[in-house]
């Protein structure tokens, strides 16, 4: 019965993807007419739908929901990026989108077995510190980019999936405790806190504090699950202590933030529309001018503002396609981590992966959209799969693979005693 359900659900999902992309492409043809760039865009978007669906049907995997939503989202983002300010097929964005889909399949194979993935945790630590070293020694001048000439890479984007792997844990790991000078602790938890501190220092050193809330959210979810795994009861004193510590850290971060962060926190964008408030004023104006249904594909003016395809892409979409389409796009991206609810994880390790990915996607989208709308200071983070950017796109593809692994795990046959502890 399960086989029939999977075989019926996959064509239905493909049909929904084709309908959505065909409707968007129809609007493109109505806006620009039948021309070569429009035909090329339609060929590559619909071609990716068909080829991706055929490949997934051949391998006949259980977790078709994540793959289907991913195909839908990257097709929509390719159409958006190709139409901003005029029609030109976004070939570079399309190539990285296909790369993200392939990275999703690779990371799925890598972590679908929770026992093997957790045995590889020393490798995740090695990758983490290798990426940190690359940021320190290869970016230069406290930057965040590595320029290879033909392409630029942002190592901090790849730290995110590695950090999610580090934060994921199981009951077996939590039962492994060590003792030093009479103090008992779990080494895995201590490493999580140490890696979080390293990231905080790294973000401050690189002057890129906009991504710090994402990492803090992932670490917080990882620590929360560690308490829940062992059914630990948190005392009132512990809760108060943690709350006080959190407040102290927030106040300290507020007071000790670099000058450029302090400037953003206290900027009145309407009083400084040609200075620090320029991007946010233009972004808010674009949303207002676009209304519910937009000016039409290619008819926006926000494309002439810096970061219109990346940091304020939500406003660019709303201006040309409308606020309704922008909100629907946000819901679709959020449906990726929410799709895990259709098939709940069957291991504690995969639960940690899924929650970590959900934290990354939700926090990044909140920071991007709220920053563009001036609800919070402008952070400059991207929207997963929608914003232009190679490193971000590939990193999000890896994270999507973690969601797929949580939906369709491969659980090794263990002895009964081991299974009772580990899963």
Q: What characteristics describe this protein?
A:
disordered N terminus, two-stranded antiparallel ribbon, mainly alpha, 423 residues
Brief account:
The protein is mainly α and 423 residues long. It contains 18 helices and 4 strands.
Describe, in plain words, how this protein is organized in 3D.
- This protein is an all-alpha fold and 423 residues long.
- The protein has helices spanning 2-32, 36-59, 64-83, 91-111, 114-119, 121-138, 155-167, 171-174, 187-205, 212-229, 236-256, 259-265, 278-290, 313-321, 323-338, 348-372, 390-407, 416-422, and strands spanning 146-147, 152-153, 178-180, 183-185.
- The strands form two sheets. Strands 1-2 form a two-stranded antiparallel sheet. It has a two-stranded antiparallel sheet with strand order 3-4.
- A hairpin with a 4-residue loop joins β1 and β2 (152-153).
- The model is unreliable at 1-8 and 415-423 (pLDDT under 50).
Structural class: mainly alpha
Q: What's the multimeric state?
A: single chain
Described by strand count, sense and barrel closure, the largest sheet is: 2 strands, antiparallel
Number of beta-strand segments? 4
Q: How much helicity do the residues have?
A: 55-70%
Give me the strand/helix succession: HHHHHHEEHHEEHHHHHHHHHH
* Rg (CA only): 22 Å
Dominant shape:
globular
Q: Enumerate the strands of the largest sheet in spatial order, edge to edge or round the barrel.
A: 1-2
Mean pLDDT: 82
Percentage beta strand = under 5%
Query: What is the terminal separation in angstroms?
Result: 26 Å
Helix count from the secondary structure assignment: 18
């Amino acid at each position: 019965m399960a086989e029939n359900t999977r075989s019926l659900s996959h064509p239905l999902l493909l049909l929904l993807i084709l309908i959505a992309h065909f409707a968007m492409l129809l609007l493109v043809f109505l806006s620009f007419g039948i021309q070569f760039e429009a035909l090329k865009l339609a060929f590559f978007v619909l071609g990716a739908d068909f080829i991706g669906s055929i490949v997934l049907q051949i391998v006949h995997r259980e977790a078709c929901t994540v793959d289907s939503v991913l195909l839908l989202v990257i097709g929509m983002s390719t159409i958006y990026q190709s139409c901003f300010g005029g029609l030109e097929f976004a070939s570079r964005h399309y190539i990285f989108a296909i790369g993200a889909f392939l990275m999703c399949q690779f990371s799925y194979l890598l972590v679908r077995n929770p026992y093997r993935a957790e045995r590889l945790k020393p490798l995740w630590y090695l990758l983490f510190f290798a990426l940190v070293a690359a940021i320190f020694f290869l970016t230069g001048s406290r930057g965040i980019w590595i320029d290879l000439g033909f392409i630029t890479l942002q190592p901090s984007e790849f730290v995110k999936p590695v950090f999610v792997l580090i934060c994921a844990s199981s009951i077996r790991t939590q039962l492994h405790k060590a003792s030093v000078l009479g103090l008992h602790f779990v080494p895995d938890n201590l490493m999580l806190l140490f890696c979080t501190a390293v990231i905080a220092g790294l973000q401050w050193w690189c002057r890129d504090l906009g991504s710090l809330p994402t990492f803090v959210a992932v670490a917080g979810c990882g620590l929360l699950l560690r308490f829940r795994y062992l059914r630990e009861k948190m005392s009132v004193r512990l809760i108060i202590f943690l709350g006080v510590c959190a407040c102290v850290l927030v106040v300290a971060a507020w007071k000790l933030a670099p000058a450029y962060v302090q400037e953003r926190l206290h900027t009145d964008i309407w009083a400084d529309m040609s200075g620090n408030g320029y991007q946010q004023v233009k972004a808010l104006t674009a949303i207002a001018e676009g209304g519910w249904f937009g000016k039409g594909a290619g008819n926006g003016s926000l494309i002439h503002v810096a970061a219109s395809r990346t940091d304020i892409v939500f406003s660019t979409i709303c201006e040309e396609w409308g606020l309704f389409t922008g909100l629907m796009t946000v819901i679709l991206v959020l449906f990726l981590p929410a799709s895990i609810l259709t098939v709940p994880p069957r291991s504690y390790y995969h639960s940690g992966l899924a929650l970590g990915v959900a934290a990354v996607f939700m926090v990044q989208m909140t920071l991007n959209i709220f920053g563009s709308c001036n609800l919070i200071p402008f952070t400059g983070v991207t929207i997963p799969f929608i914003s232009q950017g190679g490193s971000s796109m590939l990193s999000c593809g890896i994270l999507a693979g973690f969601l797929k692994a949580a939906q369709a795990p491969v659980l090794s046959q263990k002895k009964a005693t081991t299974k009772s502890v580990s899963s």
